[in-house]
Structure formats: structure tokens, C-alpha cells
């Protein structure tokens, strides 16, 4: 065991359910059609402009879990927020509740436009 691994512990295993996509990869997948795409920003952020066909489920909403439970866990889900922080946290939550194919937009919508 190296000095650093004894200090910081073993590396956490990388998630197999969550894939971070570049804006180009994300755009290509989104344009393919029949997908679940979720904008986890606030309603006012969503109204200021969102990706076509994106459903808005506010990360800070008290109904967050209820809304995600309505989605199909067996289908891939695409997530984004403003900069990538909320969507990353959402992806981890979704993995914990059983989603197996989660795609997160690297850098959020700021990086997408």
C-alpha cells in the first residue's frame, strides 16, 4: 500500500451507470428522438431557455423524488442543469434508486449553447 492510499483510502469505484457526455455527444443523442431528457434547473431557469423536449424537474423541489419515480428506470435518461453540478448530484441519486443508464451533460447548458 502506498503512502497516499494509506492516507486517503482506496479509490472509489467509478460508476458504471453514469456517463458524462460532451456537448456534441449529448446533442447527437438528444436529436435521435424518443428519449427521456430532464432539465434539473429551477422553473425560471427552464423558462429562460431549455433543450427541446426536456422535462423540468427542479433539483430543489420537494417533489424531486416523486417526479423521477414517474420515469422509466429501464430507459436511458439524459440530464442537464446550468453548469453540471446539480445534474451530477441528480445522476448519483438516480443511480441509487435503480436507474442503470444515465447520461449527464458535461458543463451543463452553459457549455451546450
UniProtKB/TrEMBL annotation:
Q: Which SMART domains match?
A: RHOD
Specify one Pfam family.
Rhodanese
Domain Rhodanese per the UniProt entry, residue ranges:
31-113
Highest rank taxon of the organism = Bacteria
Known CDD domains for this protein? Answer: RHOD
* InterPro entries associated with the record: GlpE_sulfurtransferase (IPR050229), Rhodanese-like_dom (IPR001763), Rhodanese-like_dom_sf (IPR036873)
What the entry lists under PANTHER family is as follows: FAD-DEPENDENT OXIDOREDUCTASE, PYRIDINE NUCLEOTIDE-DISULPHIDE OXIDOREDUCTASE
- Tell me what this protein is called: Rhodanese-like domain-containing protein
Which species does the entry assign this protein to?
Winogradskyella pelagia
Lineage, broadest ranks? Bacteria, Pseudomonadati, Bacteroidota, Flavobacteriia, Flavobacteriales
Amino acid at each position: 500500500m502506498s503512502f497516499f492510499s494509506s492516507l486517503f483510502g482506496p479509490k472509489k469505484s467509478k460508476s458504471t451507470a453514469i456517463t458524462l457526455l460532451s456537448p456534441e455527444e449529448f446533442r447527437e443523442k438528444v436529436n435521435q428522438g424518443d428519449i427521456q431528457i430532464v432539465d434539473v434547473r429551477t422553473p425560471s431557469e427552464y423558462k429562460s431557455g431549455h433543450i427541446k423536449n426536456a422535462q423540468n424537474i427542479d433539483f430543489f423541489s420537494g417533489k424531486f423524488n416523486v417526479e423521477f419515480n414517474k420515469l422509466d428506470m429501464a430507459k436511458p435518461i439524459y440530464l442537464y442543469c446550468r453548469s453540471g453540478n446539480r445534474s451530477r448530484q441528480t445522476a448519483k441519486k438516480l443511480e441509487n434508486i435503480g436507474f442503470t443508464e444515465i447520461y449527464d451533460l458535461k458543463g451543463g447548458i452553459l457549455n451546450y449553447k
